[in-house]
Automatic annotation (TrEMBL):
<dbReference type="InterPro" id="IPR050196">
    <property type="entry name" value="Cytochrome_P450_Monoox"/>
</dbReference>
<dbReference type="GO" id="GO:0016705">
    <property type="term" value="F:oxidoreductase activity, acting on paired donors, with incorporation or reduction of molecular oxygen"/>
</dbReference>
<dbReference type="Pfam" id="PF00067">
    <property type="entry name" value="p450"/>
</dbReference>
<keyword id="KW-0560">Oxidoreductase</keyword>
<dbReference type="InterPro" id="IPR001128">
    <property type="entry name" value="Cyt_P450"/>
</dbReference>
<dbReference type="InterPro" id="IPR036396">
    <property type="entry name" value="Cyt_P450_sf"/>
</dbReference>
<dbReference type="InterPro" id="IPR002403">
    <property type="entry name" value="Cyt_P450_E_grp-IV"/>
</dbReference>
<feature type="binding site" description="axial binding residue">
    <location>
        <position position="370"/>
    </location>
    <ligand>
        <name>heme</name>
    </ligand>
</feature>
<protein>
    <submittedName>
        <fullName>Cytochrome P450</fullName>
    </submittedName>
</protein>
<keyword id="KW-0479">Metal-binding</keyword>
<keyword id="KW-0349">Heme</keyword>
<keyword id="KW-0503">Monooxygenase</keyword>
<comment type="similarity">
    <text>Belongs to the cytochrome P450 family.</text>
</comment>
<dbReference type="GO" id="GO:0020037">
    <property type="term" value="F:heme binding"/>
</dbReference>
<dbReference type="InterPro" id="IPR017972">
    <property type="entry name" value="Cyt_P450_CS"/>
</dbReference>
<keyword id="KW-0408">Iron</keyword>
<dbReference type="GO" id="GO:0004497">
    <property type="term" value="F:monooxygenase activity"/>
</dbReference>
Amino acid sequence: MNDDMLGYLEHLAQQGDFLRIPFGILGSGYFLNHPDLAQQVLLKQAKKFQKIFTVKYTAKGIFGENLFTSDGELWQVLRSIINPAFNAQRFNAYASIMTDYTKIMISQWQPGEVIDIPTAMMDLTLGITSRAFFGEDLRDNQIGQAIIKFIELFSQRISSFPVPIWIPIKSNLEMKRLFALIDNHVGSITVKRRQSGEDYGDILSMLIQAQASDTTGLLTNEQIRNEVLNLFAAGYEVTAHSIAFTLYLISQHPEVEARLLDEINQVVGDKTVTISNLNQMPYLEMVLFESMRLLPVTAVVSRQAIENVVIDDYIIPKNSLVLVAPWTLHRRSDYFPEPLRFDPDRFNSQHKDNIHKFAYLPFSGGPRICIGNAFATMQMRINIAMILQRFKLTSLSDYQLQPIFNFNTRPKNGLPMLTHARKGID
Ligand code: HEM
């Protein structure tokens, strides 16, 4: 499991749809690999489950509860406060940040250059996310670097058994140091914002406004800081890797690339992509959806039962861990025939409504579905369309994609790709 989580999940999926797995001192785990079972855990009986111990403990020891880790009342309050940040009317502003930053990135690429796509996409996403959330680009100063390093250490901590944060091992000390830097910076931006009273149209402004009308007392200054950091941690790396996987899959399927380019040329031409263009490019969305099916960055979603839960004829005892794996659900041949084939047409208008809602879970499902899914889907389509307008990307001849699990799915040895010029954009 530790050495090859994705292989382990595939191995489990071959054994059956409902398995009990011994997890040593953590007790029993249950692996549920059928869309109806996933729907029970994530939707129908969602209230009987919470985030697992390691997720809660890892975050709590460092920056306190947040939307990702909390449950019950705190989660409900946070979700309702943060939801408006992802309302459609804010998306015009986010879209122009996304196009501006993509334009800058591709204007710096040289034809014939080999680029590690995940690294480039993480840099791009960090720029976009920090402008959309904080109103400033954090990449150019030490805060951006601190956030990258912090998220890396945090991911390692969350995917292993966490050493209590007060024990002075190297990674704990480093996380504390980085957190202090980030905390200080976010704190001072927040104070300035509050003093100026100005609405910057970003997520930080929105949280500050929500604080003024919050009657629960739960949206404290610390909570605002936690949420901004959490939205970073939850969103930036997964978005970057999803874009990277999609660009790779496009490069491996010339017929898909040709059809996609046709669509982009017809709808956008040489112009800058707009939100209304996105609605006119169904194939772009199909390609992205199929990429997230074949290579879902969140390979597995985990929960802990807070009471005995009855599903079908089985009882999942209180405290058990439950794993629902988009990685294996997306590879069920009864829901996705020839599951290893990259076929965007699975998501065409004729087929997509017939897909069981819980057979396809790149953003999970139910009340805890990813809050950033529309933001990420918009960003990924903008980035992919703009990159393809200007560049053809090919993978290196000796390159073999090897997805591995490290809290999220990513390519084991990066994903270097060669750039070939197509044409300019305005
Ligand atoms: C391709 C990009 C993304 C993927 C694949 C993804 C995937 C997911 C998944 C599977 C979950 C459910 C986790 C669970 O319940 O255990 C989740 C939750 C979450 N995601 Fe995303 N995410 C993406 C982008 C983003 C972005 C851009 C943001 C922030 C702007 C974000 C913020 C969150 C938050 C805060 C949660 C917790 C929501 C809650 O529990 O109420 N995600 N994401």
